[in-house]
Write a structure and sequence with these properties.
32% of the residues lie in helices and 28% in strands. The longest helix has 22 residues. The N terminus is likely disordered. β11 and β12 form a beta hairpin. The chain has 7 helices and 12 strands. The strands form 4 sheets. Strands 1-2-6-5 form a 4-stranded antiparallel beta sheet. The chain is an alpha+beta fold. The protein starts with a helix and ends with a strand. The chain folds into 2 domains: 116 residues, 4'-phosphopantetheinyl transferase domain (Ribosomal Protein L22, Chain A), CATH 3.90.470.20; 107 residues, 4'-phosphopantetheinyl transferase domain (Ribosomal Protein L22, Chain A).
């Protein structure tokens, strides 16, 4: 596979206190990139890729997984195609048991041509990215999926601030449920996150536990113009 540096502009942001490493890649994906990346994938990953209806979505999935394997291989000191991945009950990818001693945890998210990879040692981690845009049904989605506290904060925003507030809330909630590994099976109204533009990214509540005591920490970032992202990391195991 062509080296990553020739495929994308990459940036790494580290949070030393919790040893979070976030790699941001932005690049147009071509068929040649996908063919090269496919050689690194496992048979189950190739089967999953084959189920995509559109070539563009399939190629993005293949390249994103190929790059993930390169990044994992570099951190594990092994060849990308030798990285053994398994999937949890809700589909979250993790390293196979024989690589567990590395304590390496990871997660990825992509939107359009932006892909984010998050890594940590000994901490469960989740990440999500979205392009900020006006959505005609945003208010209805917020009313259905945001918690009561989040809905109040969202409705209090000026109309011009609502797209950013909506996607800050959405990425933060997605990052949290990806970190805990439950996916959308975890009720979204059982926890609150901050969403008001200009305010720090925080988990405010998880069920009956205040956010400061919930065992999870949240960070926000803007990986590219017009995009917002969030990363959530758990206490060390």
């Amino acid at each position: 596979m062509v080296p990553l540096t020739t495929l994308a502009r990459a940036a790494t942001a580290s949070y030393p206190a919790e040893a979070i490493d976030v790699v941001v890649m932005r690049a147009a994906v071509g068929r040649e990139d996908a063919r090269a990346a496919a050689a690194l994938l496992s048979d189950p990953e190739r089967q999953r890729a084959s189920r995509f209806v559109f070539d563009r979505d399939r190629d993005r999935f293949i390249v994103a997984r190929g790059r993930l394997r390169q990044l994992l291989g570099a951190r594990l000191g092994t060849r990308p195609e030798s990285v053994d991945l398994v999937y949890g009950a809700r589909g979250k990818p993790v390293l196979a048991s024989w690589l567990a001693d590395s304590e390496l945890r990871f997660n990825l998210s992509h939107c359009d041509d932006v892909t984010l990879y998050a890594f940590s040692r000994g901490h469960e981690i989740g990440i999500d990215v979205e392009a900020v845009r006006v959505m005609p049904d945003a208010d209805a989605i917020a009313a259905r999926f945001f918690s009561h506290r989040e809905q109040q904060a969202y409705r209090a925003l000026e109309r011009r601030d609502r797209p950013l507030g909506f996607f800050q809330c959405w990425t933060r909630k997605e990052a949290f449920i990806k970190a805990i590994g439950d996916g959308l099976s975890y009720p979204l109204d059982r926890f609150d996150v901050s969403l008001t533009p200009g305010e720090p990214a925080k988990i405010l509540r998880v069920e009956d536990t205040p956010g400061d005591s919930c065992g999870w920490r949240m960070e926000s970032l803007s990986p590219a113009p017009g995009f917002v992202a969030a990363v959530v990391i758990g206490e060390r195991e």
